[in-house]
Amino acid sequence: MTLSFSDLPGSRERQLQRQYNNPLFTQEQRTVTAAQLKKIQDEDLAQLSVFSQDFQQLFDSASQLAENVQSDVILKLKEDADRLYELAACLPGDNSGAQQSLLKLIGVIMQAVKHGAGDDPKALSELQQETEARSMHTELMKVPLVVDMLNPESLIEPDNLAATMLSANVQELEAGLQLFEIEQIQQLYNDSQVLLSDCAEKGHDMSAAQARLEIIENALHQA
Fold first, then answer.
1. Per the count of CB atoms within 10 A, which of 3, 10, 45, 116 is most buried?
2. Quick one: residue 118, left, alpha or beta (phi over 0 = left, psi -120 to 50 = alpha)?
3. Of the candidates 216, 152, 139, 149, which has an alpha carbon nearest to the alpha carbon of residue 184?
4. 172-195 b/e with 16+ CB inside 10 Å = b?
5. Is the confidence at residue 1, as pLDDT, over 70?
6. 154-185 tens-digit pLDDT
7. Degrees (nearest 5) of the Cα angle 155, 216, 157?
8. What is the CA radius of gyration of the chain?
9. At what angle do helices 207-222 and 182-201 cross, to 10 degrees?
């Protein structure tokens, strides 16, 4: 059976693609049905429609702000923009234009917040730290695996995390490992060892996955 995966899939469909006929996953996980795929695709399209409405509403609200608007309104606007930026990365299609618009809006909001902070050194320091953290986060959100792991509705769960990480390309794996504490990397390494041994015993070629295991091991030593 040939499945019709999307050219620009959403976060959950990407995980189905990783699992499909992949011996690193369990029989149940790698058996993706046409009905299962269509259900995910339909749900993603419905979510995309809601996103489009929320996106428009956000910019309508931003354009109607009074000059002396309350700080809590500004912060709520920033919170909504942050949420929609992350959601855009999870949705199907090319949403880079929407994400760029959201980043510009967040930049304008941060300037307003900075202006409101005046000369308060503590507030300005916190804003600088937030700006730097957002910059790092924005770079990580360019990596599909990271997006899929951070998705609140992610199909990546503890029981398929090792298989998912071992299926990733080098860039995705290295970026994904940045989300973990040392204890989590150790658990991932242990689970990956067991998984690779099991797959090898069943006659599968695990050379590519073995190279990924070495990257995990290096990350563990450097943590």
1. 10
2. left
3. 216
4. bbbbbbeebeeeebeebbebbeeb
5. no
6. 999 999 999 999 999 999 999 999 999 999 99
7. 15
8. 21
9. 160
